[in-house]
Amino acid sequence: MRRITRIATVGVASAALALSATACGGKTSSDAGSDGADKAAIAYDIGGRGDQSFNDAAYAGLAKAEKDLDIDGNEAEPSDGESDADKVQRLTELARAGNNPVIGVGFAYAPAIKKVAPKFPKTTFGIIDDASVTGKNIANIVFNEEQGSYLAGVAAAKVTKTKTVGFIGGVETPLIKKFEAGYIQGVKDTDPSVNVLPQYLTQPPNFDGFSKPDLGKAAAQGQLDKKADVIYSAAGLAGSGAIEAASKAGKWNIGVDSDQYNQAGLANYKESILTSVTKDVEDSVFNLIKSVQDGKPQTGEIRYGLDKDGVGLSMSNPAFTEMKDVIAAVDKAKQEIIDGKITVKTAP
């Protein structure tokens, strides 16, 4: 897999064009997309590959496609504090290089995809976690995060001994508020006496809350000091700091996006990761790439919820699966959500 890094700064457009010409065959907008899904690319969200969470799940989908579909996978990393113009340039270079599809990992790519997609009508553009930007060649991959988070709330309410649990959101955006809303509802529906401590690390336009582990660590320590014994973090790379803090305190973590119990970078803390709220980002990326290769590219809203196992709770930690009463409560809540007996809120 070829790795394209730091195609970000508008001021180095000539260098990026040179990279496109030498490393990617010098595709232009007129022939982009003519190779079908022979090449596919993902442009990472804040934190980049190695976040043990959202971006790594997207990478897993690209890696699977490279192996199973015999495609050439390409990746592009974000830069700290980058602008929408930087994202526009990154997506333009990936499309010009003949990658199809080009997938933006995260809602932050919406303005860039809105500008770039019309210029490359033969290329399919995917965007994960955003349905606001639409077009004939745009696939909006979205998830019912609130549903998986509800199940996390059920589990947290069942295992807490202090009757206090925490929620750490990376950046206070509508997307992360969905995680908070579902979690709090799940907790309160299970045990109204449990206190939930919600906290956000940063406010837009500061997105450090998705990339700075020290911020997550400090926030978790504050919640531990308030007697929280289960902490659910939806904070990307910053969440790893929260996981470290709770683990060292001997308390439970609930991970996010990927099955964080199985993430190599978190191996030292895995026993504290009770479960994770998973989003099937891996299969969503793979499915989009395969659809292009099959000549039937996905477009429009593609939604993954509990009914399609697009979100859920991981069952990797034996300590969790042995909690029969907790698993029974989670399974019951899952079925009631699927059956429409429980409607999960998308805002607190």
UniProtKB/TrEMBL annotation:
Gene Ontology terms: cellular component: plasma membrane
Keyword list, A-Z: Cell membrane, Lipoprotein, Membrane, Signal
Entry superkingdom: Bacteria
Protein's membrane topology: Lipid-anchor
Domain named ABC transporter substrate-binding protein PnrA-like: residues: 45-338
Signal sequence, renumbered to the chain: 1-23
InterPro entries, A to Z: BMP_lipoprotein, Peripla_BP_I, PnrA-like
Subcellular location field: Cell membrane
Family affiliation: Belongs to the BMP lipoprotein family.
Protein name: Lipoprotein
